């Protein structure tokens, strides 16, 4: 350990990013992890994992209903029992904080509960204790942004949604990004009335409009009401505990809960970054190509960073492993990100990776687009996925795959195959080398390309 410091590396935040860094460093460095909420961070406690447990339940119901009159009896009886579904989720989430703490202890990683704030470039304060370290990794993640309107304190967030002990009759959701669409789908499939208020006229702005339009239509068919170009101006509590939501065009609506889903902002206010010479902007901590902040002994990773690439769990852990390897001098080159796939779990799923459809359309000399409605293909007909649509984008000259968009019930798996092909610089000509399982998502790849 470096002289005069308590630790070699202090990691602030025990989410997927911080933990990936801490475990990689632990074999040869003295490491402390500081956490001020649930050990494990957002993804396993209030994010991806609990969300996908609820999604798995409602998807089973949706898929059972698809087979109504197609060989399955009793589908009209299939319904979601909200309290049991939440208990199922807790059977996983209840174990996360304790399991994470004991994992740290058994790897000889010190851990302290509390909020870290910098006093100077080498010292943080947690409650009244000071911890000095040669290096720091900021891995404090993000928290939901709340619209600044009268009654804002009445907003709930995705965290409360995923923990609601009983099923409400109705919910309002402000925003139409990842969080809004995923919770809307879980809620509507569970028999909750859902209204979405979106300040423009589309959902999921990072995905191509021809795919998001189709997904919005599917959600509308399920019963979701979209209020397009609608700005929410005020929330007010009512004596019976409901919430009245007003919009700028003088309409009012009443719900049991209203959820803010207008984005997430880096969790950095409590850190007193200025005391350590770390600069930030509205997106989070500013870092260079080595994930290093403006103070060269302080790194930042995951959702706490100001960056244009997606803020996702595998990205946070990838950055955590990179920074640890950089500190251990196993890596000296700037961080390079492979193609990063992303998926909205909305029954069906919408996935995207690589060069976008818009980028490809803007450069027809360079890219070739194959955009196909595949609902009638055997693989999609078998699961009655009539609306399935898949676009592949290839580099015109080489024929290598550079991008893909998938709207289907197996999109999360298919996009992983496409991602592998993009990273391995493969195209249609490489597929005959493979013998996939038939029938499966992989066996469709050669037709899709
Ligand atoms: C509802 C929801 C669903 C999601 N679904 C997916 C999905 O399906 N797939 C996917 O890839 N991503 C998903 N995400 C995003 C994913 O959860 C995040 O990208 C990921 O958790 C980021 O990891 P992180 O380590 O950067 O931060 P976090 O997981 O947020 O961890 C940061 C930790 O730092 C702690 N902390 C903050 N400030 C301090 C401080 N001053 N002192 C001490 N500790 C502090 C926090 O309490 C937190 O535990 C979802 C997010 C949400 C909200
Ligand atoms: N499946 C996944 O991978 C997954 C799931 C959930 C969250 N996440 C991560 O969490 C991040 C945050 O998700 P999110 O849905 O909160 O943010 P988002 O950026 O995906 O969407 C925000 C939405 O709110 C709208 N909006 C913004 N300001 C508004 C306002 N004042 N009034 C009404 N609408 C407004 C935007 O137009 C957009 O539709 C995602 O970007 C993603 O990185 C990922």
TrEMBL record:
Pyridine nucleotide-disulphide oxidoreductase dimerisation domain segment(s): 340-443
Disulfides per UniProt: 43-48
Keyword Nucleotide-binding among record annotations: yes
Required co-factors: FAD
Binding site for NAD(+): 175-182, 263
Domain FAD/NAD(P)-binding, first and last residues per copy: 7-320
TM spans (from-to): none
Pfam families referenced in this protein's UniProt entry, alphabetically: Pyr_redox_2, Pyr_redox_dim
Cofactor: how bound: Binds 1 FAD per subunit.
InterPro entries in the cross-refs: FAD/NAD-bd_sf (IPR036188), FAD/NAD-binding_dom (IPR023753), FAD/NAD-linked_Rdtase_dimer_sf (IPR016156), Pyr_nuc-diS_OxRdtase (IPR001100), Pyr_nucl-diS_OxRdtase_dimer (IPR004099)
Highest taxon of source: Bacteria
Keywords (A to Z) from UniProt: FAD, Flavoprotein, NAD, Nucleotide-binding
GO terms, molecular function: nucleotide binding; oxidoreductase activity
Binding residues for FAD: 52, 303
Family: Belongs to the class-I pyridine nucleotide-disulfide oxidoreductase family.
Protein name, per record: Glutathione reductase
Organism from which the protein derives: Paucilactobacillus suebicus DSM 5007 = KCTC 3549
């Amino acid at each position: 350990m470096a002289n005069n410091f308590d630790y070699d590396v202090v990691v602030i935040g025990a989410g997927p990013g911080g933990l990936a860094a801490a475990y990689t460093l632990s074999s040869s460095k003295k490491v402390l992890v500081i956490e001020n909420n649930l050990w494990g961070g957002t993804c396993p406690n209030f994010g991806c994992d609990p969300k996908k447990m609820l999604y798995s339940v409602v998807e089973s119901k949706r898929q059972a209903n698809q087979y109504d009159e197609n060989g399955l009896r009793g589908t009209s009886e299939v319904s979601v029992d909200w309290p049991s579904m939440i208990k199922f989720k807790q059977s996983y989430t209840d174990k996360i904080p304790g399991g994470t703490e004991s994992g740290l202890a058994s790897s000889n990683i010190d851990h302290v509960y509390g909020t870290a704030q910098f006093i100077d470039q080498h010292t943080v304060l947690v409650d009244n204790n000071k911890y000095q370290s040669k290096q720091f990794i900021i891995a404090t993640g993000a928290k939901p942004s709340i619209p600044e309107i009268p009654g804002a304190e009445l907003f709930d967030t995705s965290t409360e949604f995923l923990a609601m002990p009983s099923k409400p009759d109705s919910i309002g959701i402000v925003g139409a990004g990842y969080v809004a669409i995923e919770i809307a789908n879980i809620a509507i499939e569970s028999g909750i009335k859902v209204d979405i208020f979106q300040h423009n006229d589309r959902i999921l702005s990072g995905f191509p409009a021809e795919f998001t339009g189709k997904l919005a239509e599917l959600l509308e068919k399920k019963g979701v009401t979209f209020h397009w170009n609608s700005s929410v101006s005020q929330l007010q509590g009512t004596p019976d505990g409901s919430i009245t939501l007003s919009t700028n065009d003088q309409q009012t609506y009443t719900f049991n809960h209203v959820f803010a889903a207008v984005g997430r902002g880096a969790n950095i206010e409590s850190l007193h970054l200025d005391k350590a010479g770390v600069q930030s902007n509205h997106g989070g901590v500013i870092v260079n190509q080595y994930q290093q902040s403006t103070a060269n002994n302080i790194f930042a990773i995951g959702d706490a960073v100001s960056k244009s690439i997606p803020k996702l769990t595998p990205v946070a852990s990838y950055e955590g492993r990179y920074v640890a390897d950089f500190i251990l001098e196993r890596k000296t080159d700037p961080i390079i990100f492979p193609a990063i796939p992303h998926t909205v779990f909305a029954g069906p799923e919408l996935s995207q990776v690589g060069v976008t459809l818009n980028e490809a359309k803007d450069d027809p000399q360079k890219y070739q687009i194959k955009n196909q409605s595949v609902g009638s293909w055997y693989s999609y007909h078998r699961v009655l996925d009539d609306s399935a649509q898949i676009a592949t984008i290839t580099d015109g000259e080489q024929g290598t795959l550079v991008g893909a968009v998938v709207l289907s019930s197996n999109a999360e798996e298919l996009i992983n195959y496409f991602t592998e092909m993009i990273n391995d610089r493969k195209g249609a000509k490489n597929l005959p080398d493979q013998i996939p399982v038939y029938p499966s998502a992989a066996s469709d790849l050669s037709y899709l390309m």
